[in-house]
Amino acid sequence: NVAGADEIQKLLNITKKWPNCMIVADEIYDALDFSGKQVSVASLSEDVPVFSLNGVSKVYYAPGWRIGYLAIHDPSGVLLNVRDGIERLLRSRLCASTPAQLGYLAGLNGNRDWMNEHMSKVQSRRQLCLDRISKIDGLEVEAPGGAFYMFVRLTDEMWSKNDKEFVLQLLHQEHVLVVHGSGFSPEKGAGHIRIVYLADEKTLNTAFDRIDSFLQRNRTAKK
What is the tens place of the pLDDT at every residue in 3-48? Predict the structure, then answer.
């Protein structure tokens, strides 16, 4: 979920104990926060080096552009050699998309009011998914604090130990594609599926209708 300032500060305090340690912060979903807790790691760091990563694919809804940035927070100057090495690697890359880079720069520096409309749509679709899942026997989920994914738990015994087979059978029988949770973590992700809730409401409702139908046909027989 979304790490707040207190959790981030704990990580910074741990990192301080190891002089050669730094933090790499992937903040690609920073503006897709429903919790109000999101804060940049670098903004809280006084002396710990931080690499902040971001790009256009998530918040700006531009997957495939392959445009992003790396911001280096290095208050003590301990990463000068690392920074030099990164810049040399960057200079070895050819044919970067100049129009896409200029477009992203305009997005970073321009008016971002349009994001409010997009965020409202994402939140509405998030709530739709939460409502639908709560009414389907065999599914459970915690409300996500950010981004546009849900990690849904399969509660029926038939599928709770075989999420990959659930995904395959759902695809074959109902033509709905989700991702098996064990692909993200064999231990923590097993018995889960991941869904994306960016589709329009009609598509999401159709998908949940089919998932519900699938689970009604394929469930552990009650003793």
Answer: 999 999 999 999 999 988 999 999 999 999 999 899 999 999 999 9
- pLDDT on residue 93: 74
Segment (H or E) for 120? helix 114-134
CA distance 133 to 140: 7
Please check whether residues 156 and 90 belong to one and the same domain: no
Q: 151 falls in which pLDDT band (50, 70, 90)?
A: very high
Q: pLDDT tens-digit profile of 37-65?
A: 999 999 999 999 999 999 999 999 888 88
Which of 109, 131, 158 is the last residue in one of the domains? 109
Domain residues for the domain of 163 are: 114-217
Give the chain's domain count: 2
- Domain limit, last residue, from 88, 109, 130: 109
Higher pLDDT pick, 62 / 200: 200
Location of structure tokens 């689970």: 215
3-state DSSP helix/strand/coil % of the chain, to nearest 5: 45, 15, 40
Contact 193, 154 (CB under 8 A): yes
Q: Is residue 118 located within the same domain as residue 201?
A: yes
82, 157: one domain = no
* Residue linked to tokens 């710990």: 48
Pairwise CA distance, residues 35 & 38, whole Å: 7
Calpha distance 130→136 (Å, rounded): 10
CA distance 96 to 94: 6
Q: Ramachandran region of residue 50, left (φ > 0), alpha (ψ -120 to 50) or beta?
A: beta
